[in-house]
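From the methods appendix. Each design record in this collection lists the tokenized structure first, followed by the designed amino acid sequence. Records were kept in a plain field format so they could be parsed without special tools. The example shown here is representative of the layout used throughout.

RECORD:
FOLD TOKENS (346 positions):
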């Protein structure tokens, strides 16, 4: 039995950079070793993401097809009905999902929408699923209302490093993101926060993004790592693709710096080979989204995921070999456990 890796919040940039740039086989060996100390290496959590309000967002995120400010042409929709959300959650649970994530293209929710959001949370919780929402920035009253409705996780991605942030978003600051994460944590909800790679950033930006999360007062319970999906009519539509090995290094760094966090292999999987996804799982990724869409972007179909899982001998976290839900299987280490725009997922 390996000694458990310490849970640290005092990582330095020099340490993170040294880890990221280790010989690739050494990096993967360490990441897999850390992973096995806290999780079953052959289980992956399945979550389902639903867009509950699409388009018309006031932010100018350069990767986002839902922004009303960056040239994208996706029209705005209204918040969908509570009954539809619960019906879709019921289908997701039948398909093996244990967490249900609801994302709205907002800068922040309006007070008039809070009652419907609370009803969605309560309805999904009644199905026995974990709940997650990504709604943009929150004030104190909104945080407490979501918490009191039973919301388990709040997703608010930091997207990239503080240095590179203004190259991607100008309508709010990196500090605004951190303030929201702190507000959610202080209210007692679990934090889901990650970012996007492949947006033209430098290697150090990928390192600094993970370092920013790993040096929070508490590590996020979930860390989504997204490969940019270039969306038509956005400023990043023609950005050069990131070297896949750099992506795997980012996954491995997240696992080593944040040993108990779920590391979610999120957007971009449709363009990843089976071999690349397998390498990401070996590097410590242990969560995915199921279903054929992430908001309005493509995602691998569930049967394709199952074929890959069968090849790799992977089972769904929280689901027994006979298909029954068994939450006792979910984690080796108890106690560990979507702001979502196109090109990035919660």
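DESIGN:
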């Amino acid at each position: 039995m390996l000694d458990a890796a310490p849970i640290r919040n005092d990582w330095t940039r020099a340490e993170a950079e040294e880890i990221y740039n280790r010989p690739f086989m050494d990096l993967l060996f360490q990441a897999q070793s850390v992973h096995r100390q806290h999780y079953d290496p052959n289980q992956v959590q399945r979550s389902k993401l639903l867009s509950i309000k699409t388009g018309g967002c006031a932010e100018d995120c350069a990767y986002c097809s839902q922004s009303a400010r960056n040239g994208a042409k996706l029209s705005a929709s209204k918040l969908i009905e509570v009954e539809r959300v619960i019906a879709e959650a019921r289908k997701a649970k039948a398909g093996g999902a244990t967490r249900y994530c609801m994302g709205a293209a907002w800068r922040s929710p309006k007070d008039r929408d809070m009652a419907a959001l609370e009803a969605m949370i309560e309805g999904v919780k009644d199905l026995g699923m974990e709940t997650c929402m990504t709604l943009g920035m929150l004030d104190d009253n909104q945080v407490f209302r979501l918490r009191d409705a039973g919301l388990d996780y709040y997703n608010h991605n930091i997207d990239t490093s503080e240095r590179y942030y203004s190259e991607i978003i100008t309508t709010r600051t990196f500090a605004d993101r951190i303030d929201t994460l702190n507000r959610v944590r202080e209210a007692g909800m679990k934090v889901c926060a990650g970012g996007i790679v492949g947006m033209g950033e430098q290697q150090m930006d990928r390192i600094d993004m993970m370092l920013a999360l790993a040096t929070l007062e508490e590590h996020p319970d979930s860390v989504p790592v997204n490969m940019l999906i270039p969306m038509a009519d956005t400023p990043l539509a023609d950005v050069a693709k990131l070297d896949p090995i750099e992506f795997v290094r980012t996954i491995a760094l997240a696992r080593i710096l944040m040993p108990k966090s779920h590391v979610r292999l999120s957007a971009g999987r449709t363009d990843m080979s089976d071999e690349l996804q397998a390498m990401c799982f070996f590097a410590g990724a242990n969560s995915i989204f199921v279903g054929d869409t992430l908001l309005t972007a493509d995602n691998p179909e569930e049967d394709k995921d199952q074929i890959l899982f069968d090849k790799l001998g992977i089972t769904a976290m929280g689901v027994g070999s006979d298909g029954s839900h068994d939450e006792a299987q979910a984690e080796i280490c108890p106690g560990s456990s979507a702001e979502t725009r196109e090109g990035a997922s919660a």
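APPENDIX NOTE: Residues 24-38 form the longest helix (15 residues).
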